[in-house]
Specification:
By secondary structure, the chain is mostly helical. It is built from nine helices and no strands. It folds into two domains: about 90 residues, Orthogonal Bundle (Rna Polymerase Sigma Factor, Chain: A), CATH 1.10.1740.10; about 70 residues, Arc Repressor Mutant, subunit A (Orthogonal Bundle), CATH 1.10.10.10. Helix content is about 70%, strand content about 0%.
């Protein structure tokens, strides 16, 4: 919150710190939704431009600043989808590659992980838009129920129910043996 307050008072270094802290979260959220690196980079950049312009209007409500940024990104994506004949697709490798540095897995592990990730991502894409967004925010972005509720404009219990239904739908769609 100290960085936010400093940024609200015109401290460019503080806003740079916020950018460094949240750029990966925002980018991962956007790339999952749009599936195109160039577009995701553009929308991520625009998210931070809008945040900088509106930083003075941000008020802390007991939730992470990242939730506010994801809300801006969500609105930008919605605007983009409304303004074009865009179809949501996600290259599986993008999501797999976005994790932290790991020790080199064996080729067999890579193939099995790729199959598992591909099956999971395919199942997520078959969910309804609201369930997709809930899964992305909760599990891929690691946001809390409260943060997810704020972004989706729902109450906490509604998000819990939505998440439950989404996870149940995923479990029905996945081939047997995945996730065990």
């Amino acid at each position: 919150m100290a960085l936010v307050t400093a940024a609200q008072h015109g401290d460019g270094e503080a806003f740079g710190g916020l950018y460094d802290r949240y750029v990966d979260v925002v980018y991962r959220y956007i790339i999952f939704r749009v599936g195109d690196h160039a577009l995701a980079e553009d929308l991520t950049s625009e998210t931070f431009v809008r945040a900088l312009r509106r930083i003075a209007t941000y008020t802390w409500q007991g939730r992470d600043f990242g939730a506010w940024l994801v809300t801006i990104a969500r609105n930008l994506i919605a605007d983009h989808l409304k303004s074009s004949r865009y179809r949501l697709e996600l290259p599986t490798a993008d999501l797999v590659d976005s994790g932290a540095e790991r020790s080199a897995p064996s080729p067999e592990d890579e193939v099995l992980a790729g199959i598992t990730n591909a099956a999971l991502l395919d199942a997520v894409k078959r969910l309804g838009p609201e369930q997709q967004e809930c899964i992305v925010l909760r599990f891929l972005q690691g946001m809390s129920v409260a943060e997810t509720a704020r972004i989706l404009g729902k109450k906490d219990n509604a998000v819990k129910a939505l998440q439950y239904r989404a996870v149940r739908a995923l479990s029905r769609q996945l081939p047997s043996g995945i996730g065990s």
